[in-house]
Amino acid sequence: MLILLRSTTGCNLRCRYCSVACGETERRDLTEDDCRLLRDSLPSLLREGESVRFLWHGGEPTLLAPERFRAMLGILSELERDGHPVEYAMQTNGFRISDAWLDILERHAIGVGLSLDGPAALHDAERVTPAGEGSYARIMDGMAAMLERGVPVSLLCTVRPAHLGREAELLDWLTPLGRPVRFNPLLPLGRSAAGLAPGDYFRFLQRLLALALERQVSLSIEPLSWMLASVITDAPPRECSWGGRCGQSVFGFGPGGEVLACNRSDERYGNLRERSLRALYDADPWRKRRERSARLRARCGDCAVWRYCHGGCPVVEGEEPDAARCEARRAFFDWLRGEGLFLYQQSLVRRRSELRERLRLLRRSKEGLARHMPDDAPTEDA
Ligand SMILES: C[S@@+](CC[C@H](N)C(=O)[O-])C[C@H]1O[C@@H](n2cnc3c(N)ncnc32)[C@H](O)[C@@H]1O
User: Fold this and answer.
1) Rounded to an integer, what distance in angstroms lies between the CA atom of residue 143 and that of residue 93?
2) Which of 205, 220, 258, 334 is positioned for an S-S bond with 254, CB 3.0–4.6 A?
3) Which residue of 13, 19, 264 sits with most ligand 1 atoms within 8 Å of its CB, as the best mutation to test the pocket?
4) Could you tell which of 4, 112, 115, 186 is best to mutate to test the pocket of ligand 1, judged by most ligand atoms within 8 Å of the CB?
5) Omega within 30 of 0 (cis) for the link into 23
6) Residue 212 burial (C-beta neighbours within 10 Å; 0-12, 13-18, 19+)
7) What fold is seen in the domain 2-327?
8) CA 239 to chain centre
């Protein structure tokens, strides 16, 4: 079970496209009482031994007081006593990573998703402070500090129209950073009146993959990695937005006991202070959300890309995906299963040749070394 925690509604940035318009309303934080409520009710939804992954999301989770955050970790971790392994991750803008936060992230092995929209100019155009200043330089300092402490950091990049056609520049920027990265499309939610057209997003992914394969870049790039894995091995999509799991194994939880569909919007299932989690789960709108995939299967189950999309993200696409989105997905997966796989195969063949060449050079230098070794030099057996 994945639980997206809306740690707070406050934020220290004012990203111009924010889907939840962070920082515009009076700030409300998740509290220890909220966490107790969640801890006590969660087992009613879990199978025996089922693990729970809490993703601290926002708003901006690092606005919480570190000591309160520690207390909430302590409360949620008590689920382990009931046999439910607990794991934490955090999605942050990385703008304010104090020593106290570094201690917490390191001590509790919290993997961090860091929002970075590309090189400074691209990032700073939209991810700004309340005073309208760019945030890139401070975030890079935050990332360096986390990496120094061994905190695993992956990047989350929101693809806007300004990113289109700049795939090569993005790869130039990413390669030396060497971090796993996810590219999500800009969605028409909150402060963002318009999103990225689905066709533009898929063409971006297509160009990015072709370029990464041509350059033999060995980065983990999502969603391309799971898409390739799905096409090659029939592995199910790893993401809730493509895997048809919305409402089944993922939900959001926020200040005051709000139970939310997720963190992409303010869509609510109800409040834990008014009804039990199980009752909310069994009733509409949660039940309806859970059943969407099964309903859509009747209509879309024969589609060649159903197994990769399951109707997409209901928060973004509503009850039924629209025709333009379906067409864009179909065109992308057609390309991926044809030319995309061909490019992938070619890159593997090139890689194999490179590895063979390296092996040949290694053998030759070992033979050379052996020839020059004095007779009385210690051998491996000595
Ligand atoms: C809403 S923020 C909250 C967590 C944290 N403050 C952060 O910046 O990572 C989480 C992610 O959502 C992305 N996001 C915000 N608005 C979006 C939108 N309209 N469409 C797509 N992604 C969006 C942000 O770029 C960020 O990477």
Assistant:
1) 10
2) 258
3) 19
4) 115
5) no
6) buried
7) TIM Barrel (3.20.20)
8) 8
Q: State the sign of the Cα–Cα–Cα–Cα dihedral 174, 179, 181, 186.
A: negative
The confidence band for 349, taking pLDDT boundaries of 50, 70 and 90, is: very high
Contact call for residues 275 and 286 (beta carbons, < 8 A): no
Does the beta carbon of 57 sit less than 6 angstroms from any atom of ligand 1? Answer: yes
Identify the DSSP state of 264: S
Distance CA 380, CA 382 (A): 6
Q: Is 322 exposed, middle or buried (0-12, 13-18, 19+ CB in 10 A)?
A: exposed
Of ligand 1's listed atoms, the one at least distance from the Cα of 192 is 19
The pair of three-digit structure tokens given for residue 301, joined into one six-digit string:
């189950």
Report pLDDT digits (tens) over 173-198: 999 999 999 999 999 988 898 899 99
pLDDT in tens, 39-86: 999 999 999 999 999 999 989 999 999 999 999 999 999 999 999 999
**Confidence (pTM):** 0.92
Within 10 Å of residue 167's Cβ, how many Cβ atoms? Answer: 21
Q: What is the rounded distance in angstroms from the CA atom of residue 205 to the CA atom of residue 196?
A: 13
Q: Which of 19, 113, 88, 86 lies closest to 59, judged by CA? A: 19
93, 160, 356 from 18: Cα distances, Å: 12, 12, 48
> What single letter denotes the amino acid at residue 63?
L
